[in-house]
Amino acid sequence: MDAVREQTMPKQAIRAIVDALPDDASYEEILAELALDRLVERGLADARSGRLVPDAAARERMLAWRR
Description:
This protein is mostly helical. The chain is 75% helix and 0% strand.
């Protein structure tokens, strides 16, 4: 999260996401956007904290899933 986002209350962040969607957005679309935002924020927090996996290691993990 950026500095502004970190200070934003979850309810305010949710409102901003919902307000950015079209008025006719479905419940599923709203939930998908909220989930995507949360996943991106978690990933950015991991990156800032140094919890990263090198590309080669990630590829190896994904190949293992296919076996």
